[in-house]
Structure formats: C-alpha cells, structure tokens
C-alpha cells in the first residue's frame, strides 16, 4: 500500500508572512509621510488661529508651537533709530487688538510676537489704558513692560550702541525737557560713585563709555543724577563681572578695556565680528603698532561722518594714526557684544581689516600689509 504524503505548503506560508511584513512597513511609512508632511500644515493652522484669536495662547501647547514660529521676534525692534510717536490704548481693549494696531502703525514687526510675549509672561490682562510715547526702536518685550504701568508713571529712554556721551545727553534732554543737556553732562562724571568698574578713576573723569545702551523706563520727574546712576548700574550689571575678570586675566585696567570696546563698537557693524576686530587691535597693541582707527579721529572731530585724507593728520591725542596705544578715553558707549569682544578678543594672526562694502558690514582680514592692500583694491576701499 502506497502512502501519500500530505502537501506542506510551507513556501506559500513564507510568502504570506513576507507579504504581511511588507504591508506593515508600507503602512508605517505612509503614516510617517502623513505626519511629516502634515505637521507643517497643522502648525500653520494653529499659528493662523492664534493670530486671529489671541486667547488661544493661554494654552501651553499653542504657545509652544507659536514660540517656535516667532523665534527671536519678541526681542527684535522694527527700527532701532525710529522716531517716537503717540500710541493710545483704550479702556477694555484686548491684547490681540493692541498687537494688531501696533503692527499696522509700523511700531512692531509682528503682532503675533507681541501677543505671544504677553501670554508667555502672563501680562495679557495687565496692560493699562492711556496715551503712551512709543517708538519702533522698542521690542515687543519692552513694549509689554511699558504698557504694564499707567502712562504718567514712566517715560521711555532708548539709548543706541555707539552713541557718544553728548548724543546720550541730547536724547535725555529730549525725553526729559526739564533736564538741560549741559546739566546731564555735568552729572555724568565719576564723582563719589562707588561702582566697582570705576575703581581707580578720578572723580572728575567723564563717564563716557560707561552708560550702557539699552531701553530704560524712568519716572517723568527723574533727575540727571538718577538717570546716570541707572545707566551706570546697568553697565555694572551686564558687563561688570566680565570686565573685572578680563582685567585680571589680561593684566589690563577696566578703563582700558572699555576704551578698546568703544573703538570695536564703532568698527563692528556686524556684532559677530566684535571679537575678531578686538583681536586685531589686541595684536597691534602687543607689538606697539598704532591702531589706525578711524572712529577715534571721528570722535575728536565731533562727527561720525566719513573722514577725508587731511583728517588723518589731525593733531589730537585721539588720532591713533599718529599716536600709539589706546585713545585717552572711551569714544562711545559700547554694547555688550563689543564689551565681551574686548574682554575676550579672538586669537588669530591678523593685523589688518577692511570693510567689504557689500552691504553686510563685514570685513576682510589680513596678516600682512601686502594682503591688506590687495583686499583694499578687491573691495574698492582705497
């Protein structure tokens, strides 16, 4: 009797298992594609809804999505040199309405960024009605702080990086009509102040370079001395520790570091180049090479305008084309990037730099005079 074997059909079973696995992988891939491609669509929808209905920003999930989208916008001014103007907040006006009007008025870059910072900091219900003096030079975060108090309780003083003391005095006099420009300049000296960054300076030394450029909120009846103290205290807070440590590490006086930072401030239009430009000047100082810095001559002339060839022969201790070393005093109020650059200059072999004149504000650096002259020709800066 012949026994027949039953067919096992193992091969077809293997094929079925492989097919099922392939199907699962395809479905998984499809889901990934849907998620990846669909996520931007979902985020766009959330951002659009938050723009139209600011109260959605009360939800932390919505704020996280919007926060990623607005990025650094809450801390960016529309126009740092913009003129001041009046802005009225009506009683009972919503945060979203205020944000939209600020953008339409050209005061801020993004209404959504303003709304976001209000809800992120819990200020959405803290804005006071009234007439304010505002400026495109204020960031959404600064405006949020300003609108927290009734208009009569504070005024805004906006100081720009690179301003000399006389320019600061003019701005103060404009914001505080009761303070004469000359009176502010008289108050802006070391005097009896005990700030650690002023150690070793004589009482009559001008505070040129030590009044930190920032946005300040003062009472309308603030005095010259109170304003000077506020600006100086901010300098101490933001840069004091860095400068004191650098003075120890580099065996330089804080005052000399501020001098260097002030020159760097006027040269480095691109803040990212501050340390590199400071490194060039540090290299020159280390070999007793003159700084050849245009801004020091501009300071002596009293104008930041373009120099003429004759100006390079100016008989002044601020003419660093003729006099070696740092200028006698700081030449402006340096910002944080310039101060940090002067405190920690980049380590490199360069002794020269020239503006590229390409609209970026960047410079071309060179190790030798020959390379420098070639860069001057290349970038049309002769």
Summarize this structure briefly.
By secondary structure, the chain is mainly alpha-helical. The protein has 13 helices and six strands.
Report on this model:
- This protein has 382 residues and is mainly alpha-helical.
- It folds into 2 domains: 70-153, 2-Layer Sandwich (Dna Ligase, domain 1); 165-348, no CATH class.
- It has helices at 10-52, 60-70, 95-104, 111-120, 140-146, 165-175, 181-187, 224-250, 254-267, 274-286, 294-301, 336-343, 369-378, and strands spanning 85-89, 130-134, 155-158, 215-218, 352-355, 363-366.
- Strand 5 (352-355) and strand 6 (363-366) form a beta hairpin.
- The protein starts with 9 loop residues before the first helix and ends with a helix.
Distance between the termini: 111 Å
- How many DSSP H or I helices? 13
Number of strands: 6
**Largest sheet report:** 2 strands, antiparallel
Give the strand line-up of the largest sheet: 1-2
Taking pLDDT < 50 over at least 5 consecutive residues as the criterion, the unreliable ranges are 1-5, 7-12
| Count of individual domains | 2
Average pLDDT over all residues:
88
Question: Helix proportion of residues, in percent?
Answer: 40-55%
């Amino acid at each position: 009797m012949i026994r027949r074997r039953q067919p096992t059909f193992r091969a077809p079973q293997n094929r079925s298992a492989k097919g099922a696995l392939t199907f699962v992988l395809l479905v998984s891939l499809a889901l990934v594609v849907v998620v990846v491609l669909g996520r931007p669509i979902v985020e766009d929808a959330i951002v659009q809804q938050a723009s139209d209905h600011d109260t959605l920003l009360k939800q932390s999930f919505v704020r996280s999505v919007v926060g990623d989208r607005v990025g650094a916008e809450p801390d960016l001014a529309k126009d740092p040199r913009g003129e001041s103007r009046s802005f009225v907040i009506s009683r009972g006006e919503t945060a979203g309405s205020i944000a939209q009007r600020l953008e339409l008025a050209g005061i801020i870059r993004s209404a959504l960024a303003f709304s976001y910072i209000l809800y992120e900091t819990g200020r959405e219900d803290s804005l006071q009605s009234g007439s304010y003096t505002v400026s495109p030079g204020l960031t959404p975060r600064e405006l949020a702080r300003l609108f927290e108090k009734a208009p009569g309780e504070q005024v805004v003083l906006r100081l720009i990086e690179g301003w000399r003391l006389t320019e600061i005095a003019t701005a103060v006099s404009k914001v505080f009509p009761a303070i004469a420009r000359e009176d502010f300049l008289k108050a802006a000296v070391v005097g009896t102040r005990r700030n650690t960054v002023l150690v070793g300076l004589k009482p009559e030394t001008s505070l040129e370079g030590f009044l930190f450029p920032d946005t300040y909120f003062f009472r309308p009846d603030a005095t010259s001395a109170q304003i000077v103290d506020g600006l100086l205290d901010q300098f101490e807070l933001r840069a004091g520790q860095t400068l004191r440590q650098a003075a120890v590490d580099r065996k330089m006086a804080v005052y000399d570091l501020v001098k260097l930072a002030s020159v760097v401030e006027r040269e480095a239009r691109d803040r990212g180049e501050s340390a590199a430009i400071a490194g060039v000047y540090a290299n020159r100082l280390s070999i007793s090479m003159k700084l050849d810095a245009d801004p020091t001559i501009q300071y002596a002339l009293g104008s930041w305008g373009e120099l003429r060839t004759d100006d390079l022969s100016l008989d002044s201790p601020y003419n660093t084309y003729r006099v070696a070393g740092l200028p006698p005093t700081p030449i402006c109020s340096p910002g944080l990037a310039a101060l940090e650059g002067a405190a920690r200059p980049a380590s490199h072999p360069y002794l020269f730099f020239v503006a590229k004149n390409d609209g970026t504000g960047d410079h071309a650096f060179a190790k030798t005079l020959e390379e420098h002259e070639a860069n001057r020709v290349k970038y049309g800066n002769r």
